[in-house]
Design brief:
putative 2-phosphosulfolactate phosphatase; binds D-malate
């Protein structure tokens, strides 16, 4: 297995495609995806465009449809939810489909949608993703950070590092064997530096600060938790993620 870390969708090659892609948006899209699937949602369908989200969700039964839209950290008018993982109550989520559009996370998913295996990771479900990678042992793995509008995000890269750290613990690979690019080594170093202070890292991160300004302090605490959800969101059809 060779692991390649990319900090943004824009930096992620589309040719060749990897055997397995892991889309990461810790603040907050992939944390929300893991949370709603762990609460029994039927699927999460991701859209980069809000109008397309509205049109597709119109055809879905109203009591089984949740519409979430976020731009710049804030909720989009006309949607039921923004992108906070803490907004969803389990009764409302069970068996429903979440139609989701966010600033960067859904673009990261689109960038690697042609990979034969596409899963999403956040700190909350890191171990479930590592279990999957250990079981399937794909030849090439891309860890794709969503970043923020084309630039690097600390929280996505630290999650990539958390995945690499756990893969090294769980397998016989050395870092030299596993790392496909320099970013992978840097992601691991970032995680090793901050693993005991992940909430502090979220608060320093530029998108963390944006969310704090919008009053989302509890989201940062939640998104910084490791391995609390045993759920693996996996792409079933293009843009549609289910719990495996
Ligand atoms: C994104 O896709 O950029 C994020 O998930 C933004 C957020 O809602 O925090």
């Amino acid at each position: 297995m060779k692991v390649f870390c990319y900090h943004t969708p824009e930096l992620t090659p589309t040719d060749p495609i990897p055997t397995c892609a892991v889309a990461i948006d810790v603040l907050r899209a992939t944390t929300t995806i893991a949370t709603v699937l762990a609460s029994g949602a039927e699927a999460v369908q991701a859209f980069s465009d809000i109008d397309k989200l509205m049109a597709a969700s119109e055809n879905w039964p109203e009591d089984k449809r949740l519409r979430a839209g976020e731009r710049g950290g804030a909720k989009v008018e006309g949607c039921d939810f923004g992108n906070s993982p803490l907004e969803y109550d389990a009764d409302r989520v069970r068996d429903a489909r979440l139609f989701l559009s966010t600033t960067n996370g859904t673009r990261a998913l689109q960038r690697v949608e042609n990979a034969p295996l596409l899963v999403t990771a956040a700190l909350v479900n890191r171990q479930a993703v590592v279990n999957f990678l250990c079981d399937r042992a794909p030849d090439t793995v891309y860890l794709v950070g969503s970043g923020w509008q084309g630039s690097f995000s600390l929280e996505d890269t630290v999650c990539a590092g958390a995945i690499v750290a756990s893969l090294l613990d769980r397998t016989d690979f050395s870092l030299e064997d596993l790392a496909g690019n320099d970013e992978t080594v840097a992601a691991l170093a970032l995680y090793q530096q901050w693993r005991d202070r992940l909430v502090s890292l979220m608060k320093i991160a530029s998108h963390g600060q944006r969310l704090l300004r919008l009053g989302n302090d509890a989201d940062l605490e939640y998104c910084a938790k490791e391995d609390i959800l045993d759920v693996l969101p996996i792409q079933k059809d293009k843009g549609v993620l289910v719990s495996s």
